[in-house]
Amino acid sequence: MPLDPQRFLDDLHKLRSFGASGVGKGVVRQAYSDADIAARKWLAGRMQEAGLEPYFDPLGNLFGLTGENSLLVGSHSDSQPEGGWLDGALGVIAGLEIARAAREAGGPPVSCVSFQDEEGRFGVLTGSDVWTGKLAIEEADGFSDTQGNTLAGMRARMADLAGDFLPHGRFSGFLEMHIEQGPYLEETGLAIGVVTDIVGIRDMRITFEGRQNHAGTTPMHLRRDAFQALSAFNTMLNSRFENVVAPATVWTIGHVVLHPNASSVVPGRAEFSVQWRDADAGRLARMEEIIAETAQEIAAGHGVAVQLGPVMGIEPAAMDAGFQAELAEAAQALAPGKWQRMPSGALHDAANLATVMPAGMLFVPSIGGISHAFDEDTDEADLVLGLQVLDRAARALAG
User: Any idea what DSSP says for residue 20?
Assistant: First the structure.
């Protein structure tokens, strides 16, 4: 295929201009924002210029179609509220370039895609969740963002562009290229990661309800301090996980709300999130048990009540063995000794696609392991090498 690396890089930089943050190469392009819709319309135009049929479905997922049974290559083009220029966008433009080059060479058939709301303004992987049948659109329409906007109201902004949902059988499989979003490839001097599986995620909200009181006159032994309960919970949880988790297992208390959140008041309530990730579903379940048991013990010991919210989750997803093999062969041919098989600790649309068709995924390095930030970046030589490896595998799989 006549890949054009400069055309690929030019399109990637052009996409960055939609919602450019003005800080480094950062972007602010949340799903259904003006910048996101403008970017999708521009992408549709580039697809049409390439001889592909641009097609929006009811969620705003944008496909560039060719043939009746094609390989699908892509990712997402929406961003975090403060996002980087490559997260998702890299895979979208790689898909566009590979599909465009395939048409210019007379085949094999490759289509491309930009899924909507992968970053979870309204759900988790909203666009691919709905398209793969994991989530009903009627349920998704009731989701709201942090400003109270509903998905139904936001996707109505694109209603004039939308057709029906495409059948999964139109595609023979899915490939996604992405920045690693972690430090491993850079630290080990590797250029390519062939993804073996995408971790499962569990997320729970917990509330400790104590007694709000005066910070100067309430003796320490009489306090029912919700934050002290949270602090003790965090310490005990880390200790109890030691003999359960694997080296790649991660867990995070990432969102905390104290009430009344005042300097001179003993906190009466602490609401917080606990998220844990692992590629083994059994380990995820055992960690859930430990979290619940630990929260209840801490509550009893600190004289506070505890409420455990529902556990939200996404199952681990293995990438297709045949797709992994083609990616590995391409990596060895173009970057001998500079690649490795590895799991993904971040969630990607490929996890959903793997439930309805064969799927594979490729990583390129992230400078400093930084992502979800304005200073996210990757050396352009690494971007082009990733494109070339993905293209070689796509040719074999589409052919």
Answer: B
